[in-house]
Amino acid sequence: MPLNNKIFELVGKHTQWRRNECINLIPSENITSPAVRELLASDLGHRYTLMVNDTIHGVYIKNAYGGTRFTDQIETLAEDYAKQVLGARYCTLKPLSGHIAGMIMVLANCAPNDLIMVIDAKHGGYDGYLPDYIPKIANLQVEYLPFAENEWNLDTEAAAQAIQQNKPRLVIIGASFILFPYNIKSLREACDDTESLLGYDASHVLGLIAGGEFQKPLKDGVDIVTGSTHKTLFGPQGGMIYTNREDIFEKVSNKLAWHTLDNAHQHRIAALGQTFIEFREFGKHYAKQVINNSKAFAHALTEVGLPAKFGFKDYTESHQILLDIDKIKNDLGMDSTEFMTLLENENIIVDAVGRLGSNEMTRLGCCEGEMKVIAEFMKRIIIQKEKNVKEEIKEFLSKLKLSYCF
Question: What architecture is the 36-276 domain classified under in CATH?
Answer without folding.
Answer: 3-Layer(aba) Sandwich (3.40)
